[in-house]
Amino acid sequence: MLFIDKYIEKESLDLCSKYKNQKKVYLDLKYWILLRDENKLSNDLDRKLTTKLNELLATNKCIFPISEITFIEIMKQGDKDRRNQMLSVVDRFSRGLGITNEEDRVKKEFRYWLQSKQSITTIKPVSQLIWGNNCLITGYHGYCVMGKNLSQNLQKDFYDFVSSLSLHNICANPTPTFEPFRGKDDVIALNKGKEDFKHENNTFDEMFLSELGGLLDCYKPTFDRVSFELSEIDQEKKGEHIQNQNITIEPWAGLIYQCFKLNKIANELPFFRIFPTLFSLMRWNKGRKYKDGNDTLDVKHATCALPYCDYFFTENELKSMITQSQLDKAFDCIVESTPERILDELNKIV
After folding, report:
1. What Rg do the C-alpha atoms of the chain give, in angstroms?
2. What is the pLDDT of residues 117-161, one digit of tens each?
3. Angular region, 309: left φ>0, alpha ψ -120 to 50, beta rest
């Protein structure tokens, strides 16, 4: 493991400890918009909600971390001034706390699963290792790792520097330039695929395994990298000379698939439980059509929120799918989608 990765891991543990007594609330974009526009709200219920969120922040009862998906959705807004206002609100409510990017989370979840099967008792839970300063979700983590040839002090100093930056300052800086995000799902291809392959799965479990298999294929290189890194660490501990050709790469994707098929995995690999479950529900609902091109981003919000936050406030359809599949209960995360129910839940926080 690189020095900078070890240092970032230590910082993650420190952040986890710092906010351990605060409820972690993950907000969908619609609620960030409410907070941005709270001085213009005419709906009494919306005003009560934003007032409550401000109160919970001021009394240190809650923290509102964001993810790379939140950042992407903020950058989809074409109005630069409104984007900057939103980023300032995010900086205030998140207090710089962010959930690490998807690639990093998958690596950590897979590494923990592997090591737990080897009965390694010194490993830290993933829930303690996925936190970082929210500026890192913009890609600055990559800059830190690219500086691996610098001295350790310079690597540390650079990481500390970028961690001190706010999202607003990063995006207002002309270098790098962050243009509005334009990406959307190809709804035509998704609807065509749903129709073309609807005959292949006769049960929901079969549908889940179809979605899981396709997702696992995308992460085969990630599994190989993690396996290789762990093998290197094991050889170093044994004092053996590291030879790449002596490190065997296992067919991890196939093994994970079989473990899910045999119900041998509960919540140890949350990304691979949540993502295919929700997409399977979309495909299983014969009358549902992909429309707005945001389904993938919505599902990725859930992969960030459910395993690592206490609350997830989102939109009605996603909440319905999460509760239908009981993912909220599986990961002990309260999921709501209306201001009334959200206020009820927030008022219970003591």
Report:
1. 21
2. 877 767 899 999 999 887 777 654 555 555 556 788 888 888 888
3. beta
